[in-house]
Design a protein that fits this description.
The structure holds two protein chains of two kinds. Chain A is mainly α. Chain A is built from eight helices and no strands. Chain B has one domain. The N and C termini of chain B lie far apart (about 40 Å). The chains are: A mainly alpha, B mainly alpha.
């Protein structure tokens, strides 16, 4: 049991990193990865939303959706939207500075495919309660990790002078490609359990 | 008041090239990178997105006077989610193998920023005819971009196109191109080409004007 959970955690954190191998949550990945600090905090907020979502997904799957599977998408997205609204209010209350720094990307967690993707994968792999929570922590951690690594890279190549055609998104994409290549080195860890 | 000249054709065409959702606006990246490891997947994904986009734009445009501004985003999301569910089930019934390969990504059309973006920026402010034209244009542009990306990756990474082998046995496939890193790198290279092309054109017009 513990080994299974460990597999899920490492699997979603490193081997099948949400951003770098499933391509989930790319919008904030490219949008917010300019500064290290903001990247880390957004990652944390997203992880929190993911854990709550995993809880609700489990509850919905167990109690409600057995009777009405066609409502799956709509109910997931509603749960995510309300959780994000809640997190937004909490952050606004506790840290107005962070609230301003995250700006538009905070409400956009709703349309972060990493969160909905988590709910969908959790459903299709039939994870139970504990497995779901572990998956959410691993996935959120992986998202934060990718965001922070990318922010570090981008802070560095702010100073570089690439050819003009490479400026902006093109270079960020290729850097992400190389980062993703590096993460492929984790394949095989835990027998690629996840 | 004389009616404005018919903008339908213009709205239709801008999404295909000038404001192409992927190559110019860089929207809807998650599906565009995740499913373009083969040309077939790319086309199916593009068409599914196109269908959802047209259907939701039509409905949002029809309902635009009835949706209260405070809850408009949630309303759009629910409308989009409904059509995505329809698309998901239709694909599952008609093309089960492709549906299986695309997996969760069909459902993830719900959170494609492109679709929500068009509802907010266009369909909620324009009449039905323009909204449909815009949706068809953007959807076609998206499908085209996805197909280009998918074909390039499949040709390089697997030596085939739409499943047909192109190069014979001696071709050593460039496997990394159909793996995740290849997606990032290929899109980066395409964007680079676009920049290069745009810069050259600008230089040409500047040179011509001088």
């Amino acid at each position: 049991m513990i080994r299974d959970l460990g597999g899920i955690l490492i699997g979603s954190l490193l081997v099948n990193n949400f951003v770098l191998s499933y391509f989930l949550g790319l919008c904030p990945f490219f949008g917010v990865s300019g500064k290290l600090q903001t990247a880390f905090r957004l990652g944390m907020a997203t992880t929190f939303v993911m854990v709550i979502t995993a809880l609700c997904t489990w509850a919905l799957n167990t109690f409600v959706l057995v009777h009405a599977p066609y409502l799956r998408l709509i109910s997931f997205i509603l749960v995510i939207a309300s959780t994000v609204q809640f997190v937004e209010m909490v952050i606004k209350k506790l840290s107005p500075a962070l609230f301003r720094a995250l700006g538009i990307f905070l409400p956009l967690i709703t349309t972060n495919c990493a969160v909905l993707g988590l709910a969908l994968f959790q459903t299709s792999r039939e994870y139970g309660f504990l497995e779901g929570i572990t998956f959410a922590i691993g996935g959120g951690g992986g998202f934060t990790l990718a965001l922070v690594l990318m922010a570090g890279l981008r802070e560095e190549h702010e100073l570089a002078t690439p050819p003009s055609v490479m400026k902006g998104t093109a270079m960020t994409l290729i850097a992400a490609g190389l980062l993703s290549l590096a993460f492929m080195g984790f394949a095989g860890l835990f027998g690629s359990a996840a | 008041m004389t009616p404005a000249p018919d903008r339908t054709a213009e709205e239709l065409l801008k999404g295909i090239w000038r404001e192409n959702p992927i190559f110019v606006q860089v929207l809807g990246m998650c599906p565009s990178l995740a499913v373009t490891n083969s040309a077939v997947n790319a086309v199916v994904m593009g068409l599914a997105t196109l269908a959802v986009l047209v259907a939701s734009s039509t409905l949002v445009s029809l309902l635009r006077r009835f949706i209260p501004a405070q809850v408009r985003l949630s309303t759009y999301i629910v409308i989009i989610a409904t059509f995505v569910t329809v698309a998901d089930m239709t694909l599952q019934a008609t093309l089960p193998t492709v549906h299986k390969q695309l997996g969760a990504f069909i459902a993830l059309i719900v959170v494609n920023c492109l679709i929500l973006g068009r509802q907010e920026a266009f369909a909620s402010k324009h009449g039905v005819k323009l909204a449909i034209a815009d949706a068809i244009g953007m959807g076609t542009g998206f499908t085209l971009a996805l197909t280009i990306l998918g074909s390039l990756r499949e040709v390089l990474g697997n030596g085939s196109l739409f499943g047909f082998p192109l190069f014979g046995d001696h071709y050593e496939p460039w496997v990394v191109m159909i793996l995740p890193p290849g997606g990032f790198i290929m899109l980066g290279l395409i964007l680079m080409t676009f920049n290069w092309w745009k810069e050259r054109k600008q230089a040409a017009t500047a040179g011509g004007a001088a």
